Amino acid sequence: MKIAVLGAGAIGAYVGAALHRAGVEVHLIARGAHLAAMREHGVRVLSPRGDFTARPHATSDPAEVGEVDYVFLGLKAYSYASSGDLLAPLMGQGTAVIAAQNGIPWWYFHGMTGHPLEGQRIEAVDPGGSVTAVLPMERAIGCVVYCSTEIEAPGVIRHLEGTRFSIGEPDRSISPRCVALSEAMIAGGLKCPVEKDVREDIWIKLMGNVAFNPLSALTRATMVEICDHSDSRDLVAQMMAETLTVARAAGCDPQISIDKRIDGARRVGHHKTSMLQDLEAGKRLEIDAIIAAVVEIAELTRVPAPTLRHVYAAIDLLSRTSLVS
C-alpha cells in the first residue's frame, strides 16, 4: 500500500505517522518550516497514548511521489478545486481519495440510488463543478474525523484526544479499498470503522460544527461559554434541530439527542473552534461546507431553516469583511 498525505498539517501528519508505524509506504506533502522539520527529524507525536517518532518521506513536490493507492486530503475543503496540479502526479487509474473534511462533502448526493436528489451537485461545495473536475466522484471515500491534534512546533504534533476516523463509500457498499485502508489505519493504532452509510457520521459531527463554529466566530466565545449562556445554548439547540430536519429530508436519519450533543460540546471546555482560530489568524473561514451547504440542501428539500439562514447571513458577511490570507 502506498499513501500520499496531501496537506500534512496537524491531522495529516498524525495519520501519516501512524500509518508509517504500521509499515505502510507513506509520503507527506507539506511546505515551510513544518516540512523542513519533518525532513530533518521526522514526525514527533506527543500523545497521552504514548509518544513516538516516525520518519516517512516528506516533500513539497508530489512529482517526487508519483502514483499512489490512496491520497489522504488534509487540505481545507475550499482548497480542493485549486489542488489539481498537486493531485495530478499522484493519480493512477485506481487511486482513491480520502476527504477528511468538516461539513458536507462535494460527493454528498453521489451514489444515493433511488433518492430524488441522487447526483445533485451542491453549489456551495462544488461551485460550477470545479471540485468534481479535480476529484471525480468515483475516487471519493468519505471520512469523518473524531480526532483533535495541533502542531505544537514544526514537525511536532500534539495529539489531544480521539483516534477515530470513520470511513465509507458514497454508494453505501463495503468495498475492498475501504476494508484495506481500515486495516492499515488500525494497524497504526487508530480506530477506523467502515460504515455502511458514513453520511450519518457526517451529520452527527456537523450538528456541532454548524452551530458552534459560526457562533464562536461571531461572538469570540469558547464552547463552554456558548453552552453556559442560556440564550446562546437555546440558539445552538434550534440550529441543531433544523440541521436534523434537513438531514432527514436529504435521506439520512442521525440517531442522537440534541441535549447529549450540546453536553458533549460543553465538556470540551474553553476551546476555540477552528473557525474562531482561523478568524483570529486572518485566514479564510470554512463556511461553505459547514453551513452554506446545509442551507443549500434545505432549499433543495424545501425545508424551512430560518435560524440556519440568519446565522449563515451573519457569518458570511463577517467572512467577506474580515482580512483573509
From TrEMBL:
Q: Which keywords does the record carry?
A: Oxidoreductase
Spell out the InterPro entries in the cross-references.
6-PGluconate_DH-like_C_sf, 6PGD_dom2, KPA_reductase, KPR-Related, KPR_N, NAD(P)-bd_dom_sf
Superkingdom of origin: Bacteria
What EC number(s) does this enzyme carry? 1.1.1.169
Q: Could you tell me which residue ranges the Ketopantoate reductase C-terminal domain spans?
A: 197-316
Q: Name one GO molecular function term.
A: 2-dehydropantoate 2-reductase activity
Pfam families hit by this protein: ApbA, ApbA_C
Domain called Ketopantoate reductase N-terminal: residue spans:
3-170
Q: Does the keyword Oxidoreductase apply?
A: yes
Name of the featured protein: 2-dehydropantoate 2-reductase
- NCBIfam families recorded: PRK06522.1-4
